[in-house]
Design brief:
33% of the residues lie in helices and 19% in strands. The chain contains 16 helices and 19 strands. The structure holds zinc ion. Residues 28-29, 68, 210, 249-250 line the site of zinc ion.
């Protein structure tokens, strides 16, 4: 059997080894409207040309909650949170404390990158945000963040000074082009290895940051700059001979009142109003990047004594703006969540409403001018884009609606080798 056709099984799925350099990108917060709007105004000529040729773009869905860590991990493992264990950016640990889900010790499934590397495929993971790097590095995958590229080398690939390879210093994490720098790292490392060893990267994963998408709607100036530059990077990857697939971890919605102020339901205040004394509200969107969203998204877990659960469930479900409330066992099935890492109740709000703890606990100063966020059902809709012609079976699946966690399957198995 030729090496190109040997299969690598990861979490129950078979993947072909890449026979051409292959990149999967997760564009953080890329609501499909950003692409549609940018292409309609001619800002993404390379993407438009790709789609007019062999490429294809259809809508699909990510996992719930529509947050960065659960979706990035679903994409790189090809499985659900029930299997890989990362159901939030943040969760309540068994000891009752709130913990960031950034430690690979929390991962319950291997990544496709790690399993490919184990059979000798040359892989790399690049993330804009440091918070994802350790999860992506699980299994000794070489991984680097744009945020700390000036401090991190890639010893596994024999590279000490990554900004020198890229040819410019890394931007700050709240700069508009921190995401593009992550894309630049991937391509520059590939070309550096190709020159040095005659063999570049074979499988690359690039994950970006959604600071721009949190701050600006489609058509606003910084968003336009973001998508123009993303288009140039798509072109650069295609010119370098890559098969490219990209998706988003989640979309993005304005969660605002008519006057532009944040529209938030504070769940602890609701529980206080019911006279419930013992509770713990956990917001799985919580992460270190507070300028984005003030920890306000459209999904929450509530822990409370069994005797109060039905009363709380009914009260939440009756609120204008709340769309879904499920007890733990139902949520685990509906959302494919690990039952031991979610609350007694899972609460989801509508596109224009965010969920908070108590009003007094959230600093709204960074989102006063407009809260744009995600976490709920409405931001589960994501673009799924593949650069090269898909086999008939994969093309039909793509059109009918795939999941973002199928993207490695698409680029490795669906594209003719
Ligand atoms: Zn995200």
């Amino acid at each position: 059997v030729p090496a190109a056709y040997s299969l690598v099984t990861v979490n129950g799925r078979d993947y072909r080894r890449p026979s051409r350099p292959t990149v999967v990108m997760t564009i953080d917060g890329c609501q499909p409207a950003y692409l549609d709007d940018a292409m309609a105004r001619g800002l993404m000529p390379r993407l438009s040309a790709m789609l007019a040729g062999e490429g294809a773009y259809h809508l699909g869905r990510g996992v719930m909650p529509s947050l960065t860590n659960p979706n990035n991990v679903s994409i790189v493992t090809g499985t659900s949170p029930a299997v890989h264990g990362i159901a939030g950016n943040h969760f309540r640990a068994p000891d009752g404390s709130e913990v960031q889900l950034t430690d690979p010790a929390h991962l319950r499934a291997p990544t496709i990158l790690a399993e490919m590397q184990r059979v000798g495929v040359r892989v790399l993971a690049v993330t804009a945000k440091e918070k994802l790097r350790r999860l992506l590095a699980d299994g000794d995958v070489p991984a680097i963040s744009a945020e700390y590229a000036h401090e991190q080398g890639l010893p596994g690939l024999g590279i000490d000074d990554v900004p020198a390879v890229v040819g410019r210093p890394n931007p700050k994490i709240y700069d508009w082009d921190a995401s593009h720098y992550a894309m630049e790292i991937g391509l520059a490392v590939h070309q550096h290895l190709l020159q040095r060893d005659g063999q570049g990267l074979e499988l690359l994963y690039v994950s970006t940051t959604d600071f721009v998408q949190h701050k600006e709607a489609p058509g606003e100036p910084m968003a336009d700059r973001f998508y123009r530059r993303f288009d140039e990077m798509i072109g650069a990857y295609l010119d370098a001979g890559f098969v490219l697939g990209f998706t988003a971890d989640h979309g993005m919605s304005a969660k605002q009142e008519a006057d532009g102020s944040p529209r938030v339901i504070y769940l602890e205040d609701v529980l206080d109003g019911l006279g419930i004394r013992e509770y713990h509200v956990v917001l799985p969107i919580t992460d270190p990047y507070v300028l984005h969203h003030g920890a306000l998204g459209s999904f929450a877990w509530v822990y409370l004594p069994a005797a109060d659960r039905e009363r709380a469930r009914a009260a939440f479900a009756a609120l204008d703006g709340v769309e879904e409330v499920y007890p733990r066992e139902e949520a685990a099935v509906i959302f494919e969540h690990p039952a031991d890492r979610i609350g007694d109740l899972s609460v989801g709000s509508d596109a224009r409403t965010a969920l908070g703890k108590a009003q007094a606990k959230h600093d709204l100063s960074n989102v006063e001018s407009g809260l744009r966020s995600h976490g709920g059902r409405h931001e589960q809709i994501v673009p799924i884009v593949v650069s090269h012609r898909l086999s008939a079976r994969y093309a039909a699946w793509h059109e009918a609606g795939a999941q973002s966690r199928d993207l490695f399957d698409f680029v490795l198995n669906g594209v003719a080798q």
